[in-house]
Amino acid sequence: MPCTISTGRLINCKDQVGGIQKVYFLNYTELTITTVDNVVTDLGTITVYEYDVQPETASLSVAINSSKENGTTFFEQTSDLTLHKLTAADEDNVRLLAWGRPQIFVLDNNNQVFLLGALHGNALNSGTIQTGTAFGDMSGYQLSFTGKEQQGYYQFPAASVADPFSGLTSTVTIVPGT
User: Residue 13 pLDDT more than 90?
Assistant: First the structure.
């Protein structure tokens, strides 16, 4: 039977932390993804756009949706980002992100990289552009992206925080934020 599990799992060490360091957007493209033992080793030649996020202002979650009645399973990937400060350049980019369906790479605080929307891209489902009432209130963007895929996510270890893609055999051009 092809759905039979083949390994067990022990309780792991408590050596992980939550949170996201950076997010990289890729204008939607049909990726050629090479994996070894479920770890990405190659993505081809791509250009990604780097977005820094403040600590504890971005998150990633993957919901498992399975129906025994329909015989289907899919994974809904949600990434929520807070970008501080309202700028004309950001307004243009947020509009383009809403119009497109980018693939998203998330670098977490454990130096792991997760690829979301690998086959179908991500939709900017909701967001707000806001400036608060008081001086201490947030001024900026809160964006929520969703991808629906047959696989929960693709993952690879970051070679370094400065270039999380350098461990791949891919050619990845990173366009830094300004």
Answer: no
